[in-house]
C-alpha cells in the first residue's frame, strides 16, 4: 500500500477537476493552487484557462483582491461562475480547499459573497520527533504511528514524498505552522539550530509550498552546549549576542522561519531558574533575537516540580503553572507566546481547563492540545477527542459574560501531532479524525465538533452510503466518553502504567515523585483542592468557577475527584454513589467498546479492506485493554472499600 490519502482522496477533486478553471496571480502558493487544479483536470477531464480572455470559466481563483488578510478568502457565485478571491497566497489555497470540500455544491445556483477567515492566526502542530532514536522514548516521543516523517537514519528526509503529502493534508485542514522536533531537545537535535539548520531548511521548503512555516524546538542551554559559552544566563550580553547570531543565521537559510518552541525548567530541561532569572527574562531574550525577522517564541508553561515527595500533601502539581506564570503577566514581549496545556496536569482524559487561561490578560496565550493519544489509548483505542477539545475551547473562564478559551488563545492553538511514517499516518486509521479536528477547530474554535467529524467522514469516505456514515458516527461520536468510562474515574486522572502510560496501573504513580495522586484509602478517594481544606487550587479560578469547584455540592460530577476527596458513599448529582458510579461506568465502558467493535465488524465491504482490517485488529487490543482497566479498577476499589456492586456483577 502506498500512502493513505486520508481526507484528500482523488475522488474529492471531481467537481473541480471536471470543470474549466482560471487561476490568477503569481507566487509560490499560486503555483501550488495551479498544480492542484491541473492534477485534478488531468484526472477528470477539465481544463485550465490561460488567461481572463480564454473563454468563460466555471471557477475563478483570483489573488488580486484587496482588503483581505493573508489567510482570508471570499466565495461567491453569480449563477455561472464560482469566484474565490484572496489577497494572499494562503487565502487562495484555503479557498481552493474549501471549494474542494464543497464539491458539486460549490457549482450549483447563485451564492452571495461570503468571507472566510481563521479565528486564530496561528494553527500549529508540534512534533515530538527526535532525529536520533532515543534509547527510552524511541524516535517519536509519545508517538504511536511509527517513526518520524521528517528524520530517518540520523538525517532529514525531504526527498521523502510524504513530507509534501503531509503538508498538503495539513493545509487542507487549515494548519499553518509545524515544529519539526521534540521539545525535549537532546544533544543531536540541539544542532538543528546551528550546523544542521540546512536540513531544517530542506523541510521548510516542502512545507512552504503549502503555506506552512517551520519552527524549531531549541534547548535553553544552546549557548553552552553549542556555543561553548560558560553560561546561558538570559541577561548576559554574550549570551544574548550568541542567540542573535544564531537566529540571524537561521533566517539566512529559512527566510520565513516561524520561531522557537521552548520547554525550560520542566522535567529536567535547562532554563532560566539556574541563573536566578525569571521565565519572562528567558522568553524575552529569545523574543528579542527573533523580533527583527518577525519570528515568535513559544514558551511552554508546563513548569512544575517533578521531584516532589508524595508524602507532602501541600505541594499540588495542578497549581504550578499558575503560580509560576501569573506574577509575570505583562512582562512577556509581544512576540512571545506563553503556550499552556489545556488542563493543569497533563492531557488526561478529563481535566478542568487550566486556570492560567484567562488569568494573564496582558500576555499572548497559546493553548496546547495533545492529538497524540498518550493518555487516551495510544492510537490502539478509538478515542475521538473533538468533544473534549471543543468543551475546552468553549469554556468561559469568567463565566457566561466573559470570553471563551477559543477567543483568549490569541497566541494560537497548538496540538502535539499524532502522525508518523505509518501508512495510515496515525497508526489507528480513525485517529486521523483527531488530526483533522485540530486543524478545523483552530480555524473555528466554536465549531460544532460533530459537524467537523461529519466533514471528516464525508471527505475521507467520499460517496459513502448512509450505513457507513452512520456506522462511523456510531463508533466515533461517543468514543471519548467510552474511554473515560473504563479508565480513571470522575476526573481523578492517571492510574496508568508508569513510563509508557499505557494500560491500567491504579497505584502506578501513587508513591512516585510526579505529583499525580488519587489518595484512595478505605474510606474514600480524590484530591482535596479546595481553598477551605485542600491545596487551594480551586481558588486560582475566577468566579463563578472558584465557587463552583470549591464545594462537592456544586462541583460537576465529572470533575469531582479532581477537586475533592469524598467518601465512597458520596452521592453524585446523577444519583448514584461514587463507588457505584465507578462500577457502573467501568461495566458500561467495556460494553460500549464491545458494541463499537460489533458495529465496525458490520462495515466490512464498505471500507477498503486494509483500513478495515487495521481498525478491526486494533479493536481486539482495545477490548483486551478495556477489560483489564475495568477489572483492575473495579477490583481495586472493591478491595479498598469493601462495598459490593449493587448489581451483583463479577468483581475480582
Ligand atoms: O506528558 C508529558 C509526556 C512527556 C512530554 C511532556 C511535555 C515531551 O509524558 O513525554 O515530553 O509531557 O509535554 O513536555
Automatic annotation (TrEMBL):
Keywords for the protein's UniProt record, in alphabetical order: Hydrolase
Occurrences of domain Glycosyl hydrolase family 67 C-terminal (ranges): 426-649
Sequence ranges assigned to domain Glycosyl hydrolase family 67 catalytic in this UniProt record: 113-425
Entry protein name: Alpha-glucuronidase
Organism: Streptomyces bullii
